[in-house]
Structures are given as structure tokens and as C-alpha cells.
Amino acid sequence: MEPNEDGKELKNSESLDETDNNEVDATVGHIEKLAPKQRDEVISKLEMYSGPIPHPDILKKYNDIDPGAAKKNN
User: Which of 26, 30, 59, 54 has the alpha carbon at shortest distance from 42?
Assistant: First the structure.
């Protein structure tokens, strides 16, 4: 077994993605058990993004600071 980034050991058949999904599911489960008012205070927005480049909102912020930064290649 290999440890994940939190130092917890993964089962041989368990990937990091599965572990991440399990943690997200557990967190959502806990939040769903809260009273509606508490839930509203805890969650304002839950957004996930995965890709080879930063999320478009992040690129926009770079462009706000340095126009054209999102198009630059280093």
C-alpha cells in the first residue's frame, strides 16, 4: 500500500481520485445532515475544476493584474 498526500495508506485498488471522491462524499454527507440555516452558513459555493490549465476565473484575475498574462507562454 502507498500513502496518499495526507499520509493515509491507500488500498491497492484505491486510487487518489477515489479517495478524493470518498472524502468529498463524506463531507457532503455531513453538511446535508445540518439544519437548513446552518447549511446555508457553511456552503456558499462548491465548485470543482480539473484541467491542464487554470480555471477561466483564475486566468481572468491574472489578466486583471497583468493584461495579456493568460496568453503568455514561458
Answer: 30
